[in-house]
Design brief:
Layout lengths: L5 H14 L4 E13 L20 E9 L4 E10 L6 E11 L4 E9 L31 E13 L2 E16 L6 E17 L2 E15 L5 H15 L3 H5 L6 E14 L2 E12 L6 E13 L2 E13 L12 H13 L2 E15 L2 E12 L4 E13 L1
Antiparallel strand pairs: 1-2, 1-16, 2-3, 3-4, 4-5, 5-6, 6-7, 7-8, 8-9, 9-10, 10-11, 11-12, 12-13, 13-14, 14-15, 15-16
Length: 381
């Protein structure tokens, strides 16, 4: 993906503002410091040294009203994990068909989760980062169409979104810099709200292909196994390892409560790419929060269970070396993990918040524990 310097982007945006139409800017940022407090650092995404780069982010959003019910929106994001190189995260047009219907086209956020629309806006939620057991798919945008319908169903507010499009970019899937292609992404996201309660359901499907990075150890091992299976005549087993035009599905349900000073959120998701090396992923979280004036205390429990059907193992017993390799690769994609997070938020400014989270990771499959401390300042402007 082409990288643009932030200075060039701002200069171009300023030129557009002066020559074409009025552009409204807003933005957000998160300065996040993290440190693993255990020897097992793999699960946390941080090591034993304090890092400000992994989760820090700076973003600008530009929107303009083109009149006649047409508007344009672009979001430019610079992530510390990418050395603060700026990318166009969003770039789309929206046309209001009526008071209830609108259609958007371009590059947009795919509405997989409750917090998808403001996934990067740390100020919008209680944690330093959303629960990673659920918010773990390695992509968050798509290019295509979105149809949004807002209405009333009795006393309930209804928001129904239909999406169609595709995704083609590098991701961290099996290994770094895997090339992913998702064709014919189609799905819906429906939210119902009444007073202090809201419920949500989502379902998406796509034709999924991932070309593994052969320069990484994991990618090379899986590619070698697939080639070995094909060479030995185990075509079906090789197809079940490859991620090539397989049916991928994602399902999510959840509900939220925001009653007086009490907050509660839960989301349950299931992700599967059939006939591939990926295990079926089932995860959920439940989070309780309590407001005390400008402070918010919260406790979150997360659960991850990634499993293959048992009949996928021991399929090539006539070739013990290949059978062992197949079992090892399939097993490496299984996991059973819990995360406990205790955190606090202090809104010390009308547009800024200080957060502290402590998370404990309990990996039951590896029989390992690890801890992580995150401190963040989130702001909007």
């Amino acid at each position: 993906m082409k990288k643009l310097s932030l200075a060039i982007i701002l200069a171009a945006a300023g030129f557009s503002a002066s020559t074409l139409a009025e552009i409204r800017f807003n933005g957000f940022a998160s300065i996040v410091a993290g440190k693993s407090i255990s020897d097992n650092t793999g699960a946390t995404g941080f090591d034993n040294d304090i890092s400000f780069k992994n989760e820090s982010i700076f973003a600008l959003q530009a929107a303009t009203d083109l009149q006649e019910n047409l508007s344009a929106t672009a979001q430019i994001v610079a992530r510390g994990a990418n050395d603060f190189e700026a990318d166009f995260e969003w770039a789309y047009l929206t046309y209001e068909i009526s008071d209830h219907w609108q259609v958007s086209a371009g590059k947009m956020r795919i509405p997989l989760y409750k917090y998808s629309d403001f996934l990067d806006v740390g100020y919008a939620y209680r944690w330093v980062r959303p629960p990673q057991s659920v918010y773990n798919l390695p992509f968050s945008t798509y290019e295509g169409l979105s149809f949004l319908h807002n209405s009333q169903l009795g006393n309930w507010d209804s928001s129904l979104q239909l999406v169609y499009g595709g995704f083609d970019d590098e991701i961290y899937g099996v290994s770094p810099n895997d090339q992913a292609e998702l064709n014919n992404i189609a799905g819906l996201n429906w939210t119902l709200s009444y007073n202090w309660f809201s419920a949500r359901a989502a379902y998406f499907a796509a034709e999924t292909s991932v070309e593994l990075n052969n320069s990484s150890a994991t990618g090379a091992a899986i590619n070698t196994l697939e080639a070995g299976l094909r060479g030995a005549g185990f075509t079906q087993q090789a197809d079940n390892v490859a991620i090539d035009e397989d049916d991928g599905t994602f399902m999510a349900v959840g509900f939220s409560i925001d009653y007086n000073n009490i907050l509660f959120d839960t989301e349950y998701t299931v992700f599967e790419v059939e006939n591939s090396v990926f295990a079926k992923q089932t995860q959920y979280y439940a989070s309780f929060g309590y407001r005390i004036e400008d402070y918010l205390l919260h406790l979150t429990y997360e659960d991850t269970s990634d499993e293959h059907d048992s009949n996928r193992f021991d399929q090539v017993t006539t070739v013990p070396q290949l059978n062992q390799g197949l079992n090892q690769v399939l097993s490496s994609f299984e996991s059973n993990r819990n995360i406990y997070t205790l955190g606090a938020r202090y809104d010390f400014h009308p547009m800024a918040a200080l957060k502290v989270d402590y998370s404990r990771f309990d990996d039951k499959k590896q029989n390992e524990d690890s801890g992580l401390v995150l401190v963040a300042v989130d702001l909007v402007f």
